[in-house]
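My main concern about presentation is that the manuscript never shows what a single data entry looks like. An entry of this sort, consisting of the sequence and the corresponding backbone structure tokens, reads as follows:
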Amino acid sequence: MIETLTAAVAEHGTLARVLGAVLAIFVVDLVVGLVIRKTAAITKRSKTGWDDALVASIRAPVHWLIWIVGLIMATEVSGLMPEHVVGMVHVARDLVVIVLFAWFLLRFIGAAGKNLIGKATLSGKTIDASLVDTVSRLLRLTVVILAVMLGMQTLGFSLTGVLAFGGVGGIAVGFAAQDMLSNFFGGLMIYLDRPFRVGDWIRSPDREIEGIVESVGWRVTLIRNFDSRPLYVPNSSFSSITIENVSRMSNRRIYEVVGIRYQDAGAMSAIVDDVRSYLQGHDDIDQGQTLMAGFTTFSASSLDFFIYCFTRTQSGPEYFRVKQEILLHILEVVEKHGASCAFPTTTLDIPGPIAVEPVKTT
């Protein structure tokens, strides 16, 4: 009877310790959650995005860490855990801590990137979203690799052997995936050298590539043609072709040749002088760039003069507006001096008189 009573008291004591441990875990989780919510309210008022990302990323991993580690410790303290599984449980606990910490880092990297772009947009600052995305991907990949290596070490694998096997396997994979690796490093060079970014208008004189860059991935770059067709270009191609970034030009050039008739040769000097004066006083022409206008060629059917200047704008629509205005004014100058623009003509020189015979009708 006494032994039965003692066993019952011991069983009730164990149950009480378990319930007490669960209650303590619940209270700790509640307090930690309250502290995180209060901290989140404070960080929302800051101008940086790092603190917001840190608080938002740590909430779920800490919640699971408290409950999983707390329950394992409560089971050990209560004596309910068999001795032969204690070692395995400790390994499992370490793996859980590694996974949760890696989860926190992945959440933090992703949230920090989004907050960085969002804060910069709200403040009117310019930031390269594609560069932020690339750095985030590299950091997340690094976290995953480190977490896997730590997990394997926790399970008892030798990191030296793993790294040696990885080196041999890496050589084999490298030979089998040369194109994939070349595209990967080509994309990395795009991010480092920055020949273009998302939203730029680029074209290649070497290939039939022209359009707006929509995305730069690990393997291909998506370029949208002006007829709205997507063009997927392997990143490795950009290391062997010439790329012209139209979006980064400082000015747009106007170069036109205008021909007048040979019988208007006397007006050529005055026409050229008026056109040059007009360009030198035009508000939309960059006077700090090369500006020329002059008689240049005796063509087959015309006397040609040219204009060479640069607009201040880089916008396509604005450039064509300025160019149209200048060309229409040149026509007015030509007409003002009593001249006309030439067009291709042919003169026939027939020696002697031409006899015309009347047509006989019946």
